[in-house]
Amino acid sequence: MTIMGCCARSPDSSDRFSNRCFNLFPCLSDPVRRSTLCLRLALVTLHLIFVGFIFIFNEEFREKSKNQPLYTSIYILLVFATLVQYFFTSGSSPGYVIDGMREFSRTEALSRASEISKQPASSKNGNVVVTIDKNQLGENFSGNNPMNWTKLVLDMYPPGTSARTYTCSYCNVVQPPRSKHCHDCDRCVLQFDHHCVWLGTCIGQGNHCRFWWYILEETALCIWTGILYIKYLQASFDKAWLVDVLVIIMLSILSIALIFLLLLLLFHSYLVVTNQTTYELVRRRRIPYMRSIPERVYPFSKGACRNLYNFCFAKTSIYAMEPLPGALELEQMSVPYTCLDVISCRCCC
Questions:
Q1: 3-state DSSP call for residue 349?
Q2: In sequence order, what are the residues at sequence separation of 6 or more whose Cβ sits closer than 8 angstroms to the Cβ of residue 31?
Q3: N or C end of the chain: smaller count of CB under 10 Å?
Q4: Residue 201: exposure state from Cβ atoms within 10 A (0-12, 13-18, ≥19)
Q5: Is residue 6 part of a domain?
Q6: Which residues constitute the domain of residue 141?
Q7: Does residue 223 lie within any of the structural domains?
């Protein structure tokens, strides 16, 4: 026993350090949260490296900052706004079905309570007696009454739709139209677009607008930084070639990132104008309620102008749901546009 005790491996210092970190920061014990945190730190570090390089090596930019401080202030403000928008979007909720179900139960319970309070109270010996079923209200508040939710969701589908067809096998809840279970988040997301690895969260109804604005700010920052790098190369051909090579490498990385960001911005702008999601566009034939709809018909589109307004300005709940259009509406949507329709802005309104 003594020999075994002497030969036993003592805990490594790195293991003891990691255990202390996990005790101080419980979120680091989760591998998913740990990888997301490392990704966020890496992205912030990249921003600081690319922006800091300009301030350290670009003398022209430093001189311009002294003569035109507003120019530098706007650039720094754009960097700060982009990082804030990144963390704001990554920490926002995309709108989960289970949360929407609980919100619906709370709203329904409150409406029932208000209806009961408005009913004429019964009097007994001159005292007013109001009876409220607390068990039923508690059941609604806790979200344990799924029958009304099922009825609400099935009314959004064509008549005769079975609840089994749209019941998630993982969450065991009836999914409204445009919802999908995300295996990375392990939840059903309302108006599911995609799971963004860079943000560490799903993009859905609750944060799609924030995601679009983040892409726009990141694209503008990438273009502005690329212009500063090009100006530096134009003014420093007679200087140390090692720094120039480093600038060329960094400019190449910026160019690749800019191409990706521009394509992503254009793609999501098209989705916003037509009121689609990435999942609906890519997996259209795998979605049961989209199979019978023609390819060029966007069932949830209200027109380009209204889609933009609802996306950017309309104050709706992150748990709002869109029902499928009826057969008559789909027939009207499938009619091709004419010159008169273009003049009357039928495609926009």
A1: coil
A2: none
A3: N
A4: buried
A5: no
A6: 97-189
A7: yes
> Are 198 and 271 in a shared domain?
yes
d(CA 178, CA 193): 9
Structural domains counted in the chain: 2
Lookup: tokens for 223: 């273009």
Following DSSP, what letter does each residue of 113-133 receive, concatenated?
A: HHHHHHSPPEEETTEEE----
Please say which residue of 287, 303, 319 terminates a domain. Answer: 303
Name the more confident of 218 and 347.
Answer: 218
Report the percentage of the chain scoring pLDDT > 70. Answer: 76
H or E, element range at 187? strand 187-189
Pick the closest to residue 190 from 296, 290, 325, 318 (CA basis).
Answer: 318
Predicted local confidence at residue 87, as pLDDT? 94
Give yes or no for a contact between 115 and 75, defined as CB atoms under 8 angstroms apart.
no
On whether residue 21 sits in a domain, the answer given is no
Asked, for residue 299, whether it belongs to a domain, the answer is yes
Q: What tokens appear for 16 in the block?
A: 């003891």
**Is 196 assigned a catalytic role?**
yes
Sign of the C-alpha dihedral, residues 273, 277, 283, 284?
Answer: negative
Contact yes or no for 233/251 (Cβ under 8 A): yes
Strands 201-203, 194-196: pairing is antiparallel
Written as six digits, the tokens of 159 are 């008549």
Write down the pTM of the prediction.
0.80
What's the token pair of residue 183? 């295996």
Please state, in angstroms and as integers, the Cα–Cα distance from residue 249 to each residue in 191, 235, 241, 244, 254, following that order.
39, 17, 12, 9, 9
CA distance 255 to 337: 39
Output Rg (C-alpha) for the chain, integer angstroms. Answer: 28
Q: In this structure, what token pair is assigned to residue 189?
A: 């997301």
Please name the residues in contact with 60: beta carbons below 8 A apart, sequence gap of 6 or more: 231, 232, 235
Give me the catalytic one of 168, 196, 209, 348.
Answer: 196
296-322 average pLDDT score: 86
